[in-house]
Amino acid sequence: MFLDSRLWGKSTGLGEDPSGSNRTHPLICHLLDTAAVAEVVWDELLTAHQRSMVTKALRVSEDQARALVAFWAGLHDIGKISVPFQLHRNGPKTADKRLLTEELRSEPGYAFGAGAEQDQQSHEAAAHWWLVGYFEEMGYPSSKRRPQTRLSHAVAQLLGGHGGRFHPVVHGKDSRCPVARHPGLGAGDWERQRRAHADEVRRVVGGTVVPQGRMTPGAAVVLTGLVILSDWLASTEGEIRARLREATWAGAPDDLDAYWQVARAAAPRLLRQTDLLGTGFARLPEPAPHPGQTGLLESMAGHVPDMVAEHGPGLVVVTAPPSEDRTEAALRAAAVLGHAAEARGLFYALPTGSAADSHMAQVHAFARQALTGPWKSLLLHSSSRLKPAESTEEWARAHASDGISPEPGEEWAPTANSWLNSHYRALLAALGTGTVDELLQAVMPVKHNAMRLFALSGKVVVVDEAHARGAWGQRLMLRFLEWAAALRIPVVLAATAADTSVDAMLAAYHRGAGGGREPVMQPRPSPGWSFVDARAGGVHLPRKPAEPARTGVLGITVAEGAPEAEIRAALVPIVAAGNGRAAVYRPTPAEAVRTFHQLTQDFPGLSVTLIHEQMHNKDRWQRLAACGKTYAPAGRVSGASVLVTTPMLEHVRGLHFDLVLSGPAPLAALLARAGQGEGDRPSLVVLRGDSVSELDDAALVRRTDMLLGTGRTVTLPEELPRLLDEVYAAEFADGLEGPAARELRQLDNQRVVRERRADGTARWLAVPGPCELDGDLGLLSRDHTGMEPGLVTSVLGEDMVQVVCLYPYGKPGNTVHLLEDGVRERRFACAPKEKPKPGLLVPYLIPVPKRLVEGVEGDANSTWRGTAALKNILRLNLKQEGGRWVHTSPTHRFCMGEHGLTVQQLT
């Protein structure tokens, strides 16, 4: 059977030929392009462990596996040989707007039945349905009763998932005659061409071996990522245009052999453009010893390398109060694990975007010591997903503008036109600093979740404050750790104190590594650490536990008066002395702004800084950078200074204060804020009369309030685990009587109901663990009945909306919009016929909780709404009223000023 080179695989972005017809790239060429890239990805990008997972699962040699993955990658788009795809009304056209493939309709061999063009099956699903039978005919292991357990179905399902979602199992009766269920596949020449294309790919690539193994979860993740990455690279429009064939190109065997050499020559260049190659881990020198001390850093440096050398990489759990020392210990452990695993990068995950922003400089300082070869870094959280590279560049610019330059020339930051500058690709970057939800989405049924697992499977993952995500996040983290262990991903977890949630995380990795379901316990003394190897799930403890580097006493005072008066009174000694640093935590941005204005009026000449989450990205980054210098232990500040902020700052490291003031909050949050105190006797004032954040659990706030009473002192870190256990104790209310007991029991019941509901939702939403798949990759993409679009984002934490405020400029009727008030150079193209530039927005985005803008439609025009990167950004055209820039909707009033955005609900 001759191969029909008219069947096209790519057309978008390829331009027109001299006659005015759309240029197309023959499908067979795209298949060979992808196969050629797959060879290079296998050779140059995959780690030795990733390749080993594939070869062991398939029971073939490494050379045979290389040929097989190239062959399979070359079949990924075989479903494009179908009626709905080739004859789609939006397909490539001639100069007179007829489909280029219209002539197929008149050829008897390409005849098709009624309903074929209306068949809604995607080309990815079509590949899955057709390839099951094709692989069975080739002799791949198969099963009529349970097809998902055999290789023939597993490879077909894997290739059908290259669009980001796997499709349900195809059973025997459908795989034997798929066209009966999906007429769009077509019979006659449609079937013959699928076979001709598949056979030629196999012949040219050399994938003739017939594997007899089974598809393990680890092999499936690696192969899925390899196929998707190869397809993405082979689809680079500029490279395709350089390899377009002449219209007379026939696709004969000699033509295909010649083209295969062209594709192979281009493949290394395609992979090099990703900035993914060449990164590794160096062996770090041991830290300088402190005579007579065995602190956390010394204990881990003395034991972790030996444990990893003996048992291989795995999970390190560090429990200690938040500090830069704990962060350094976690990063050094990551370097040991990364070197042993021959990992190609690191992802550092934190609870919030602000925490990620503040850690990025320390992560870069670590990377310059620990990473070898070239590496690119990206900032990854909700404010950076629009354009990760632009966000990273703006972060660097914000720091450099204050005299901080992370690295000469900032070579670590990808450019705006970088291949990595995409939401789905960004996690592949050698170094990522972001939020933990980037990990949790790998175990949720979202698009490209398997690609996320693939991106992480070649790295080391560090999770800071791993317990700080509530019941939903905790359940999803357990599922992620099961997958991490199954994929042998080295992980470092850092938590404030050892408790049952930390025990559960240890047990999850232990279970995923094949260690059974028995409980595992983290040592309770603080600081402490433990190690679980990924080979068998063995738990290992240090021979010489860590000792506290320094014991401190935290003094907690509970103030009963009005918050404003108590804040003034607490600051008077600092102002009078003309020296000292204080942090004031307010529950919302609006209250933080009010406190800032009040303090500047009450204490003229006092240095008062404001920072909160509803500022422009660039302003928040600049202020965080400035705070990192001003409030460092040896910060350059003279006189008294006060930082007014919100809970966004509690996970930020490297800031030190003599006094911390905060409204009521759960004990863990208060201790995190107090941990920023300086010296051996930091001081925390709790403003009992202040309002409580809507995000805080009322029962835990009430328990904390009762536990603190009128105030107390806490010896750190020794008393920290006991104090946290006490505030969570089930019998806490037993010693209470009367209304107080009834109130607390009611709040506790509400908390238990919320947590159980959240835990149940997360169990229902999370993908199965690696041991529960039973070969069916479709379970990773299953749709739940009743799953609303917003559920996924709500599980990841409070749903945020990115807002951009636009200022008018010019005369009425001829108005353009500016991103900054009066700055003509910051014009933003948003007229109806102008295409917006999403990257330009990144510095000016403002993250706002969705609950505060519910029902607000904004002023987006059709061009804005039609741009994928902008459709989830709320655009507000501002007007000047009473000297203030405002936007008023039927339900809300937005005010934008130099101190950020405030939102007032009107109805």
Task: Please give a structural write-up.
This protein is of the alpha/beta class and 907 residues long. It folds into 4 domains: 8-273, Hypothetical protein af1432; 298-387 and 420-543, P-loop containing nucleotide triphosphate hydrolases (Rossmann fold), CATH 3.40.50; 557-729, 3-Layer(aba) Sandwich (Rossmann fold); 799-905, no CATH class. It contains 30 helices and 28 strands. The strands form 6 sheets. It has an 8-stranded mixed beta sheet with strand order 7-8-5-9-10-4-11-12, with helices on both faces. Strands 15-16-14-17-18-13-19 form a 7-stranded mixed beta sheet, with helices on both faces. The protein is globular and about 95 Å long.
**DSSP summary: helix tally:** 30
**CATH level 3 topology of the largest domain:** Hypothetical protein af1432
Supply Rg.
30 Å
Helix content estimate: 40-55%
What low-confidence regions span 5 or more consecutive residues with pLDDT below 50?
402-409
Q: What is the number of domains? A: 4
- Main sheet properties: 8 strands, mixed
C-alpha geometry: globular
The first-level CATH class name of the largest domain: Mainly Alpha
Mean pLDDT: 89
Strand order of the largest sheet: 7-8-5-9-10-4-11-12
Number of strands: 28
CATH architecture of the largest domain: Orthogonal Bundle
The secondary-structure class comes to alpha/beta
**Which percent range describes the beta-strand content?**
5-15%
**Span between termini:** 71 Å
Organism: Streptomyces violaceoruber
GO molecular function, one term: hydrolase activity
InterPro entries: Cas3-like_dom, CRISPR-assoc_Cas3_HD, CRISPR-assoc_Cas3_HD_sf, P-loop_NTPase
Keywords: Antiviral defense, ATP-binding, Endonuclease, Helicase, Hydrolase, Metal-binding, Nuclease, Nucleotide-binding
